[in-house]
Structure formats: C-alpha cells, structure tokens
Specification:
The protein has about 350 residues and is α+β, with helices and mostly antiparallel strands. The chain contains twelve helices and four strands; from the N terminus they run H-H-E-E-E-H-H-H-H-E-H-H-H-H-H-H.
Length: about 350
C-alpha cells in the first residue's frame, strides 16, 4: 500500500472506533472523545485530558501519521522476513518445546497478514491511549510522581530531561496499566469477530501478538534490552512490557474459554504467544545485524526468571502497591478485565531473598 492508502485505512478504523465510544461510554458520561491525526515527523501517539469536570470528560487521542507509516512498514518488513526466514524448519530447533504454530500463510496472504497485524497494532495503540484517559493516569502521575502534565506521550519528547526515581516508577507502572487496558480491549474485539471459527481465532491471536511485539519495539526505538536496577525514562523496555503482556493474554483467554470454548489450553496459549514474541525478537535482532543464537529464546523467559531485573521489578511492584487502590477508586472505567494485576507467584518471587 502507498502511504496515503495506509493513512486512509488508519483513519477509517480509528474514526469508527471513536464514534462507537462516543455513542456508548462517553455519551453515558456526558463527555466527548476526540481523535486527532498529527503531522509532526515523530513516531508518537498521545492522550490529553482537557476535562474541567471529571464527570464530563473531554478527552483527546492523537496519532501522528508518522507513527502510522512506521508501524505499517515495520510490520510489512516483519511479514516478508517471516515468509522468507521464519518458515525454515531450522528455526524450530531454537524452540524445541513449542508446538501448535498457527499456519499464517494457509489462511492469509503476506499482504493480508500484514494488514491484520497492522490493524491489531494500531488498535492497541489507540486503546492504550484510552486506558491512560479512562484510568486518569495524568492525575496519578501528578499526585504520586509530582509530574504535572495533562498530556501523556508515547515517545520521549523531552530527551534532555529523562525521568528518574519516583517520577519514572509512576510513569512506568501507568504505562503497564495502559498496556493492560489496550490488550484486554483488543482481545475482546478479536474474540467477538472470530468466536465462531476456532482455527481463525487462533491465527488472529497469533497475528495480534506479532503486531503487539513489533509495536513495543518501535516505541523502544528497536533497542535491545538493557538491565537497569530502577526505572529510567517514561516507558519500560520492550521486553519488560512483553513479559507483563503475555500473562495478561493467557489469563484473559482462559476466562474467554469459559464462555466461548476456543479450545486452546494454557500450554497452547503459551506456545502460540511465545512463538509470536520470539519471532518478533529474531526480526528485531536481524534489523540490528545480530545473527541467530542458541540463547535467543531465553530472552523471553517469564518475569520470575528475570533475576537480573529483580531490583527494577521491585520498584514497579512498590509503585503498583501505591497507586492501585487510588486508581481503582478514581478510574472512569472500573472493569476488572482492564485492570493490571500482580500474581501471587510474582509477589512471592519479589519477596523471596
């Protein structure tokens, strides 16, 4: 597709979602959600709260055309890389215990896979911003992090004044909350569309995690994971976001199975989502001219196995303990499906010496 065609598709998809939200959630609150497309040559999306009365929210979600373009082109490159390299059986040697690879190219062409991943990724970005607004993250950042702003950006606009300490921790935990909101919203749409075809639902889930992984890396400038002992900057690293995102997907799909009966076990979900995120990692490494390594699959290994990141994760947990209850009380959308939560196993791991 040309850039103009990509912009048109993005506009159509997000305009329709915005209209639906205004006719439902925002109408019920006597509020309004506005969608803007920005022309700045910056890969960015943003959420702005212009409310005077919290009970009549005036919210804006902004998406730069540059983000739309980069997101599509990166996913397009990923799909071409996938068809040329990741269908090689030698790749399976790096994932010896992973089964149930969805047959992407049996159901969709390269172009169709690209479009589906792009729409899923773009929709995630939109709902991530909506999560910032409906959970009132700017208020939490001001109250607990002394970070006074009505606009939350997805790229580091002010690179000279990088967040550190408490400000960074509160920023990181609210980003993880927004990720959780975006993931649950997207999965609800995927299940609604594909609930009657279990094979296509599996493929759609796989496509979504591929696109989600690419999105996280785009907002991290494609950088490899760097261990830090405390939060720095406005956002967690892409791998950390993935490590929190994958269990959220497993838990939500387990709940869905109780109603829809999608016939994917927890093991199936781990293999499907793990493979998608691993393939995205191989793609990112290839862009940096890093070849295949035997330990690549171990980079995505579960939060409780990230011993090198434990000090950082303890900071995230402390921030979560501080804001979780005030967020729940002040949020405009209190659905438990959207909530970011900490498992008992993760809590026990952090408390262990």
């Amino acid at each position: 597709m040309t850039n103009l065609e990509i912009y048109e598709q993005a506009t159509n998809v997000l305009t329709m979602i915005t209209a639906d939200l205004n006719d439902s959630i925002y109408q019920n609150m006597n509020g309004k959600l506005t969608l803007l497309f920005g022309t700045d040559e910056v890969v960015n999306a943003w959420a702005r709260d212009d409310s005077i009365d919290v009970n009549r929210p005036q919210h804006t979600i902004g998406i730069n055309y540059k983000l739309v373009e980069v997101l599509y082109r990166d996913i397009e490159s990923f799909c071409n890389f996938y068809s040329q390299h990741l269908t090689d059986k030698r790749i399976d040697a790096l994932l010896p215990n992973y089964t149930n690879e969805p047959l992407l190219f049996e159901y969709f062409s390269i172009e169709q896979n690209c479009f589906n991943m792009f729409v899923g990724a773009l929709t995630f970005v939109f709902f991530h911003e909506l999560g910032h607004l409906l959970q009132r993250h700017s208020c939490l950042r001001e109250r607990f992090g002394n970070n006074i702003t009505s606009t939350i950006n997805e790229c580091n606009i002010d690179r000279e004044n990088k967040l550190v300490g408490k400000q960074a921790a509160i920023s990181h935990i609210t980003e993880l909350y927004a990720d959780s909101y975006g993931i649950s919203s997207c999965l609800s749409e995927i299940v609604r569309h594909f609930k009657d075809d279990k094979k296509e639902l599996k493929v759609a889930l796989y496509q979504f995690v591929c696109g989600l992984s690419c999105t996280f890396y785009i907002f991290s400038d494609g950088k490899s994971h760097q261990v830090t002992h405390e939060p720095v900057g406005s956002h967690p690293n892409a791998l950390i976001r993935l490590e929190f995102a994958l269990p959220k997907i497993y838990e939500l799909m387990d709940l869905v199975d109780e109603v829809v009966k999608h016939e994917m076990t927890r093991e199936d979900l781990v293999h499907i989502c793990g493979r998608a995120s691993f393939y995205s990692l191989i793609f990112q490494d290839a862009k940096r001219k890093v070849g295949l390594r035997n330990d690549q699959a171990e980079q995505i290994k579960g939060l409780i196995n990230r011993k090198e990141d434990k000090p950082y994760l303890n900071s995230i947990f402390s921030a979560w303990e501080e804001i979780s209850e005030p967020l729940r009380i002040g949020a405009l959308d209190t659905s438990l499906l959207h909530e970011f939560s900490i498992s008992d196993a993760f809590r026990d791991y952090l408390h262990a010496t």
